[in-house]
Amino acid sequence: xxxxxxxxxxxxxxxxxxxxxxxxxxxxxxxxxxxxxxxxxxxxxxxxxxxxxxxxxxxxxxxxxxxxxxxxxxxxxxxxxxxxxxxxxxxxxxxxxxxxxxxxxxxxxxxxxxxxxxxxxxxxxxxxxxxxxxxxxxxxxxxxxxxxxxxxxxxxxxxxxxxxxxxxxxxxxxxxxxxxxx
Length: 182
Fold this sequence. Notes:
The structure is a single chain. By secondary structure, this protein is α+β, with helices and mostly antiparallel strands. It has 2 domains: 15-30 and 112-182, Regulatory factor, effector binding domain (Multidrug-efflux Transporter 1 Regulator Bmrr, Chain A, Alpha-Beta Barrel); 34-109, Alpha-Beta Barrel (Multidrug-efflux Transporter 1 Regulator Bmrr, Chain A). It contains 3 helices and 11 strands; from the N terminus they run αββββαβββββαββ. It has helices at 2-5, 42-57, 126-143; strands spanning 9-10, 14-19, 22-27, 31-37, 70-71, 73-78, 81-87, 106-109, 113-120, 147-155, 167-173. The strands form 2 sheets. It has a 9-stranded antiparallel sheet, with helices on one face. A two-stranded parallel ribbon has the order 1-5. Strand 2 (14-19) and strand 3 form a beta hairpin.
């Protein structure tokens, strides 16, 4: 029971601008364990991607090290392919992370990013991800905020959590904090 109550480390970010329906965040560089797939949807990517990444953090690595789960799980899917990533705990860097036994699990460091974020509740589905991506796209277009890349999904909760679920749609944006002050 204690382990179920333990706090999961969340990827660090700073909210820099809030608007009704969305917010702008700054994410400092982080290390991700990522798998790439030809899946074209949440449904096709969720289980096999999670299984491979969970294997890595549960000890399927060169030193059989167990790595703590973090949140959120990052998922990006489109017609040209998809990816799923786990954020590595902040106590790790590229030098002290064990090498994955599965060559399809890739360790990579992200750049600092500004992203627009829209939250939604309940269980994620392809329909909800499409719906909220369109809503965020429309809000950004209305505000004249330029975005690029794919709209991605962030999932924060384990599948056995039935209520109070936190899901987010994010997209990388062009942003200058000097131009927007709260």
